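In this section we walk through a basic example: taking a raw amino acid sequence and producing a predicted 3D structure, encoded as discrete structure tokens. The instruction is simple. Fold the sequence below.
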Amino acid sequence: MNQTQTDAWTIKRLLEWTADYFKKQGRDAPRLAAEVLLAEALDCQRIDLYAQFDQIPGEPQLARYRDWVRRHAQGEPVAYLVGHRDFYSMRFEVTPDVLIPRPETEELVLMALDEIKSWPNRRGLVLDLGTGSGCIAVTLANQVPELSVVAVDVSPAALSVARRNAATHGVESRIQFVESDWFANLPPGWRFPLIVSNPPYVGVDDDALDPHVRQYEPQIALFGGQRGAEPSQRLIDKSVAWLTPGGLLLMETSPMLAQELLSYAESADRYAACHLRQDLAKKPRILVCRAHK
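The resulting token sequence is shown next.
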């Protein structure tokens, strides 16, 4: 974006130039990224950009936008630049202390909601292990007013973000946040009819991982050991003792690990029944395990 060019930098031209630039730099969804960054720089909604195509942003807004464009072109995620990400039609604060919520995890939320709707009066206590931004816990509490949630994370910084998201969406009174390495700090008498988790499941040596994800997102929430399966196997082992009779474990995983984890969960008669659910791309993504009654 060179200001010596004779054509004025209207909103329309900014979006076109930036989308083309991001595309050349290999960034995903280049037009969407351009719109999100410009809308945030102008403090407006994305849809408002289309009613202002001929307007020329002021220099402070342009300077902010240029900085974000440069940083995103180098790989810094849009969500960290603007400080938020939409998930399940809700806006969540995100910082580099938490993973950026992704569409695959919305499938986990949908499955959890289907399970909750089968409960009498939809009342119960849900455990969200590795809550991160709180997107799962907050969304479930938002969608089911009768619900109470325990949200666990080992990272105090992540829990701070999750608490702020709960307050933003008015559900902080129904979510208990616990700093814990999985189940370690939970009262031993607690039992849950539903446990949900999006644990770390990327292998440390996974060459398929986007290098910018590796660079910018929190490693503690990304990497599940050398192969990626270790935290998931631990949750499969430990969750049995924390589920009520007939309770359900829903766990997001990698399609590359899904079949292995299913076999692991089915071994030693840990659960009454286990199966895999596919994501929107028709890839096995969610492990479903039902406890014995």
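Looking at the output, two observations stand out. Residues 59-73 form the longest helix (15 residues). The chain has a mean pLDDT of 94. In the next section we compare this with other chains.
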